[in-house]
């Protein structure tokens, strides 16, 4: 095989086409047609959520579906405009649009934002940085999504009731909405259409989950427009969409605009990657596929790049649309290609197909999507299971709700990173003893009937040793060394210590000297080979020399017994401690 053929074969879409089965064709085509009925109203609704003309949502859907079909690794994942990205896009581009009345400039900025997201994705893929999706922990992601759901819901309420509010921020938007209601700005017919639209979608999703809820609601509201002549009752309609297909264009923006969009691009890239990997993992588990963060970054990058050059905006994975495709029988990305073709035919041949669709119906689509973003049961579960994680989630929620979407994602990332450091700074640690009649070892604090060897303390530290927790390790070992009676050996159960950096190595040398001055020997069991090699480069012959290392806890215990003649006896009751914090107690229980 030539190099060119091998490179071509490496493209996911080419590889999938070469192995395509004829028996899949009917299922993929049917699923694509069904999917298109969801893509059109959602694409238009999410475009307006992002502060853009509805037609850009259709351009975006076409571009990203075709690009991901070629470069995306997943068989059925569906990318497109997403409710979680809409507020982030709006927050980034609307402050840069002059007086908010220049849709062409808004489209150019959104398209450049998509290209910047694509560049970040492709650079990340080249550097194999798919793991950065893990920067958003589940509790902070739950809080972020809850805040986003509330922000979207409040922002769409005026549109649902047929009027507009000029406000910035959640509190002012709530105030503006109730002010409009109080002064009679709401349009009764619009409110009826919007509220019934939300009820129809949510009810169908709950009781008939396989039914195309959004499509049914759209058809009902279009029918209501014709029957009740809603336009004459003050209800705004979508109207006829622009006919034809846009040419490939390079967004016309300035360098200062690019600088202003950089932060938003990074946040959107992170949320899109995290959402895509989590959704891909859920669906791949059913088909026994493997998920590669790096390959998904290429697929997302290609989809955003195509959208950016086709007057679109940043995209992400949609769990709901992917579920629709799967339930409809989709087997490959041909489903997305069929969906893109159907949207193209509508734009070119029948641009007036949705002209009687009420604007409140689009608001209903967005509000229904925002409800699905919120995870109240998950939040309550955090409250019952771990209060510290609940507080992280609430902080992320308040960050989005009170400070805005873009500061909210920054807060979510920072909280996740700080949470990682918190766990590494104060990891699970425990003093071990032997369970009577068993060969294993348990946490003395969790199982008071364990036995111990007089003169030997066994200590487990479940984290890599590095600069942030070196002092914590030293303090714990020093506390153990002051036990009564004073130990002769302190044995470190090191199977969970995956690294020792220079700061920790210097700490170990000083700690060993301190303990040795009091006649206490510091020894190690189950030290990993990679850690041992690093330690040898640090030249710590005393603290971690070969005579201090044992392959297992049992071998170290046997050596101690042979040297001292000690025998197992009931462990003394652990000393009372002052109100240990919740996290440490939970960690100890888990380590046991």
From TrEMBL:
Q: Which residues cross the membrane?
A: 51-71, 83-100, 106-129, 141-161, 181-204, 211-231, 258-285, 334-354, 361-384, 390-418
Q: How does it sit in the membrane?
A: Multi-pass membrane protein
Major place of residence: membrane
Residues annotated as signal peptide: none
UniProt region (Disordered), positions on chain: 564-592
Q: Which residues form the STAS domain?
A: 446-560
The record's subcellular location field reads: Membrane
State the UniProt keywords alphabetically: Membrane, Transmembrane, Transmembrane helix
Question: What name is this protein filed under?
Answer: Sulfate permease
Q: Which organism is it from?
A: Actinospica acidithermotolerans
Species classification: Bacteria, Bacillati, Actinomycetota, Actinomycetes, Catenulisporales
Tell me the name of the encoding gene: sulP
């Amino acid at each position: 095989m030539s190099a060119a053929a091998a490179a071509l074969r490496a493209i996911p879409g080419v590889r999938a086409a070469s192995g395509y089965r004829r028996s899949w064709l009917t299922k993929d085509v049917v699923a694509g047609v069904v999917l298109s009925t969801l893509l059109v109203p959602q694409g238009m609704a999410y475009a307006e959520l992002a502060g853009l003309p509805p037609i850009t949502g259709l351009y975006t859907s076409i571009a990203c579906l075709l690009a991901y079909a070629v470069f995306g690794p997943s068989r059925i994942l569906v990318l497109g405009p997403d409710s979680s990205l809409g507020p982030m896009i709006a927050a980034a581009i609307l402050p840069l649009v002059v007086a908010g009345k220049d849709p062409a400039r808004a489209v150019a900025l959104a398209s450049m934002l998509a290209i910047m997201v694509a560049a970040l994705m492709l650079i990340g893929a080249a550097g194999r940085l798919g793991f950065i999706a893990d920067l958003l922990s589940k509790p902070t992601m739950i809080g972020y999504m809850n805040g986003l759901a509330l922000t979207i819901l409040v922002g769409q309420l005026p549109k649902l009731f047929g009027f507009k509010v000029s406000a910035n921020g959640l509190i002012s938007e709530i105030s503006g909405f109730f002010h409009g209601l109080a002064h009679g700005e709401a349009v009764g017919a619009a409110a009826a259409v919007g509220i019934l639209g939300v009820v129809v979608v949510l009810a169908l999703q709950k009781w008939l989950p396989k039914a195309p809820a959004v499509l049914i609601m759209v058809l009902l509201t279009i029918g209501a427009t014709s029957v009740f002549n809603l336009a004459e009752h003050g209800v705004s309609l979508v109207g006829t969409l622009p006919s034809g297909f846009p040419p490939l264009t390079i967004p016309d923006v300035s360098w200062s605009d690019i600088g202003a969009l950089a932060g938003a691009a990074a946040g959107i890239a992170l949320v899109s990657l995290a959402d895509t990997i989590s959704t891909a993992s859920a669906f791949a588990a059913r088909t026994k596929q493997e998920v590669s963060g790096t390959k998904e970054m290429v697929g997302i990058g290609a989809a955003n790049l195509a959208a950016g050059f086709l007057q679109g905006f940043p995209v992400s994975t949609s769990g709901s649309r992917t579920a629709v495709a799967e339930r409809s029988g989709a087997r490959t990305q041909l489903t997305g290609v069929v969906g893109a073709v159907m949207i193209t035919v509508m734009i070119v041949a029948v641009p007036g197909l949705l002209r009687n669709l009420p604007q409140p119906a689009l608001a209903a689509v967005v509000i229904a999507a925002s409800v699905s973003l919120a995870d109240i049961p998950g939040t309550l579960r955090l409250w019952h299971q771990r209060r510290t994680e609940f507080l992280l989630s609430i902080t992320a929620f308040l960050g989005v709700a009170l400070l805005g979407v873009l500061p909210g994602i920054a807060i979510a990332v920072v909280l996740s990173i700080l949470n990682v450091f918190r766990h590494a700074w104060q990891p699970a640690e425990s003093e071990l003893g032997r369970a009577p009649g068993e060969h294993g070892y348990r946490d003395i604090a969790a199982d008071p009937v364990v036995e111990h060897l007089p003169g030997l303390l066994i200590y487990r530290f479940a984290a890599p040793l590095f600069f942030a927790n070196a002092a914590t390790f030293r303090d714990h070992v020093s506390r153990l060394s002051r036990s009564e009676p004073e130990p002769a050996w302190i044995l470190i159960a090191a199977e969970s210590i995956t690294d020792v950096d220079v700061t920790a190595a210097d700490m170990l040398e000083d700690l060993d000297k301190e303990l040795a001055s009091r006649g206490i020997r510091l020894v190690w069991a189950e030290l990993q080979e990679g850690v041992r090699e690093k330690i040898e480069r640090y030249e710590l012959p005393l603290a971690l020399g070969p005579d201090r290392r044992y392959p297992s806890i049992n071998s170290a215990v046997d050596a101690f017994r042979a040297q001292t003649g000690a025998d197992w006896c009931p462990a003394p009751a652990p000393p009372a401690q002052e109100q240990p914090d919740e996290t440490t107690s939970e960690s100890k229980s888990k380590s046991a």
